[in-house]
Fold this protein.
Amino acid sequence: MGKSNRAILISIFFGLIGLIFVIRLFVLQVIDPTYKYLADSNTHRKITEFPSRGLIFDRNGKLLVSNQAVYDVMIIPREVKAFDTLDFCNALNITRTELDGLFQELRQNIRNRKASTFKPSVFFKQLSAEQYGIFQEKLYKFSGFHVQRRTLRKYEFHHAAHVLGYVGEVNDAMLQRDSYYALGDYTGISGIENTYENYLRGAKGARYVLVDVHGREKGLLRGGRIDTSAISGKDLTLTLDIDLQAYGEFLMQNKIGSIVAIEPATGEILAMISSPGYDPALLVGRERSKNFPVLSNDPLFPLLNRAIMSGYPPGSTFKTVMALIGMQEGVLKESTRYGCQMGYHARGLSVGCHAHSSPLDLVPSISNSCNAYYCNVFRTVLDNPAVGTPQKGLDKWKEYLLNFGFGSRLGSDFFNESRGFIPGSSYYDRIYGGRRWGSLTVISLSIGQGELLTTPIQMANMTAAIANKGRFYTPHVLKSVKNDTIPMRFRTIHQTGIDSVHFVPVIDGMEQAVWGDYGSTARIARIPDVRICGKTGTAQNPHGKDHSIFVAFAPKDNPKIAIAVYVENGGFGATYAAPIASLMVEKYLKQEIHTSRKWLETRMVEANLINENK
Amino acid sequence: MRTNKPISSSLDWVTVTLYLIMIVFGWLNLYAANTSPDATDFFDTGKEYFKQLIWIIVALLSVGVILLTDSKFFVEFAYIFYGISILLLLAVLIFGVPINGAKAWFQIGTTRFQPVEIAKVASTLAIARVMSRFEFSIYNLSDIAKLGLIWFIPVAIIILQNDTGSALVFVAFFILFFREGMSPFVILFGFIAIIVFILTLIIPNYTIHMVLAASFFVFLFLKGLRRESLISAVVALSIFGISALVFKSRGADINYDLALSFGMAGASMYLIFRALIKRLSIVWIFLMMFWGSVVFAYSTDYFYEKVLNDYQRSRIMVLLGLKDDPLGAGYNVNQSKIAIGSGGFSGKGFLQGTQTKFNFVPEQSTDFIFCTVGEEWGFLGTTSVITLFVFLLIRLIKLAERQHSDFSRIYGYGVIGIFFFHFAINIGMTIGLAPVIGIPLPFFSYGGSSLWGFSILLFIFLKLDTNRNELIR
């Protein structure tokens, strides 16, 4: 083969390739109509199929949260042609000015590259099914618009808003973090909607449809073979008893505070009330943008979940744990007696107490809530010669409290739990500048005052641990997930490090607090036929009237419910918290309130501590 | 070497005209692909068509400089250019910014530059220089080694940049090697290798292995070595059977590849023994061919699994029709075919395309600019572009053949090869005839450095052509 022949050969080869291309293009562009058909009169459109969010049930299988369909009007700006704006406004039931506003917003989004001129973006959100019907009929007149189905939450009960949380649009940070989301998608923002987003959200599907120039669907692209269907979210069953929850919210009306009720054997939260609350339906869809600012600007903070976020001093309810620590440390026995002369007086310092017989041993010290007794117990713990210094003693004491779940997040279902606060020696070293403090300096800790901060859920957990004689499961509201398991941390038992024998006198003391005769602080909590054990508390409040506290569990043997109630500015524990707690326990165990206690229920419901405070 | 005449009298105006038509038409398409009704501001400096306009001016200025440069300069400085371009390729490995997974761009401000464009020009010059040496022979082993090294170094670095598409462009030099006397069998072997490569992807390795083994015995038999072929086949089969049983007895899955290799190794040993005794030279050749094919089959498998990227693998699979994935790897091609097909015979008209502006076709203004041509100008437009390219290529062959100087001719064929490769692969992929390798269509695709690179590549040749009657040394 000569070299110039090769030049000819190469030229022929090039020509041949060119010819092949031309033939192929002739087929593509002139002969074969499929591609022409696919593009010319039709374009395909990806329609995201939004999965329905997982349903939420209560512990008895009652449906709490379901879904409702709404329809977003989508726009592809490039395809929009001149249309009858009046007709459009009527179809959507909006004014001309609102329409101009929507277009202005769209233009801004296009300028900021949040929306594209050739891809669909949401133009008008959340048409109801009824409105959708009207709009759909006229849709053919509005080229460039189409409708996408979405689901919103629907609440069957108007309770438990703090537990359930709410669903809202994803923000930029979430879009960055998780590629699942697209602009305008919904996600759980708070409560279990947030925590269990991955269970609830399911998986989006996609449908590819051919649409004509008017935006009408003309069939499936490739016969639907490439479509993926949406996978519904997993249904959740909560540990809440919605009737108990509703009753708690009913009792707490016009009061600020919180109730947490736990099933001691499992750590399951039966009710979690934060008052004032709100109707979860207020934060759905279009309503949310209207209601959210109102709720978040309310001076009483209805959006705040006090049950997990508010730290209060535990007050006298803490004496139960103090007694347990003393016994475990070996500095306190059931028979130990301390005198009380209207309080504890030492080196010019005194902690007041109320009138009761003196001296007392352990069981009546709890039922009578003697301050002096626990000042003594606390000092023996801190000044225990076996431990060494009060600093070491305090840290030892703190360690026990940490084991009870105080001072750190319990790890329940909520990401925004507060830690509360348990001071240790390093804290006081900082305050007092080194070791210039002793057991007497921090004596107010002994009666649950001072720097101590505990959340209602921590208090309920403490009560459950006492009811269980030293063990507890992390309190949680997730009972089960359909076709899945609940997190391991809810199935792990925790030990408080206190021997179960030590609980006997404490529980007896709590029983006597309710059922004892003379000097018992919580006799108002008596429930016919239910051996309820409880302990009152009053948290000093520098800003106003003291907070009323009560912790209780019932029945004494094989307890079914442990409860903590906080009523802000409610005064003594026995005034509001104890009656409310006992009514809750009665409601849960007996389903209804005994006629002899109806007056109490009425008094609690009618009590208005919010306006009184103003 | 005297050039008293003005350069305009010896410049090939046909090519220059073709070049200018392509630049203008290319830019119009870029404008169409890039503009949308809601952005009416022409002087939007952020727009691709505006940036491209600036690059066109830069390219034309460079062309002017090249035409004023003495042709001897390109010969003299060929190796220096080559060295600089290699340094640039290495530098981009360190200082480059990764885009779409390839670290092949320098970025200064908002301007990006791809040094591979310089490398193409410089490598062509260096190859022309080495091959135009008086004593060079394409059959001389040390010459081939030298040539191979010049060819291979940039390829290796570009592969390291993860820019496989650009590396494949260097295959284009085989057109030049062929013109300069390389055996056509090399190209034939290349084709066979591609076919075996595809076969290894479609059918399991051991099947190929078995087919090779079977044909090996059949050929031996046909060559008259009946006794040897039968005995060795029996040896191979029994070892294969025993190995399979051993695998089975140890509870493992039967590794057919390994068992077959054992069998064929046994048969080969017997045959070697026979060949040594009876001096059967044909057996050696057969054995070499057989084991060579086996090794090739397994190494392509390795190449496919280990060297290629995920997206390259899936694009090959889609091209071969082994995988139907209209929204994954096949998405580009599917959308691009829809866009081109929608153009019909005469197109939708300038700026009237919808498919290409819909952003249905990804990488619209770079690798898939041909879609815009197809959609807006129809079959008439696409045919014109193809005619333009084929005409340009054949014109360049004509120019190359009329060179008095070897250097100019060889360089010319390098240019021809590169243009052809880009043309064939780019248009081929948009109409579903070639795998989707992200390389631009010369003068049409958006991208300053490619436009600039193609312009100087072409105009160095046109400059050399002005001295076609002289011997440039």
Observations:
- Residues 7-22+36-199+314-360+367-424+436-460 of chain B form one domain.
- Chain B touches chain A through 48 residues (CB under 8 Å).
- Residues 369-401 of chain B form the longest helix (33 residues).
- The mean pLDDT of chain B is 82.
